[in-house]
Write a structure and sequence with these properties.
The chain has 147 residues and is mainly β. The protein is built from 1 helix and 9 strands, in the order αβββββββββ. The chain is elongated. It starts with a helix and ends with a strand.
Length: 147
């Protein structure tokens, strides 16, 4: 009798066991009566958030080879901040943007930048910063490596 109960327990747990597909590359998951397509999320779409004293929740989304969408929030004096793209040796591009609210509020920003590498093996770095009203120097720099 104990053997029959043990056999039934093993049979029921084996039939109800679901396979986890973590880290597998199969495109489909088969069940007894249906086939379900598995949707994978590319690693590039998972956004890392960057922040410092003046910027928070900053994300960069690669839209094409040379085009990036930058979004986040800033607590910036008069809602105006600057950015530059550098390759480690040269400043390739620079500009400025506005948040939708000035300090002390956290204003949102969203902009698209287009930048091309001078050298194939260089690494592009986007730097967001606030310009000092006193002497024009860069303050609260937030460096972000572009992929």
């Amino acid at each position: 009798m104990k053997r029959i109960i043990l056999l039934l327990v093993i049979l029921f747990t084996a039939c109800n066991k679901k396979e986890l597909n973590v880290g597998k590359t199969n495109d489909t998951v088969k069940t007894s009566d249906t086939i379900q397509l598995k949707k994978t999320i590319p690693l590039d779409t998972i956004s890392k958030k960057y922040s410092n004293e003046r910027f928070r929740n900053v994300t960069v989304e690669k839209m094409s080879d040379n085009k990036f969408r930058v979004r986040g929030e800033g607590q910036i004096f008069e809602a105006s901040f600057n950015w530059s793209v550098e390759d480690g040796h040269n400043e390739l591009k620079k500009g400025y943007e506005m948040t939708d609210a000035g300090a002390p509020e956290w204003g949102k920003f969203d902009f698209i930048l287009d930048s091309v590498k001078d050298k194939e093996n260089s690494t592009l770095t986007l730097i967001l910063f606030e310009t000092s009203a006193k002497d024009g120097s860069r303050q609260h720099e937030l460096p972000i490596i572009l992929f």
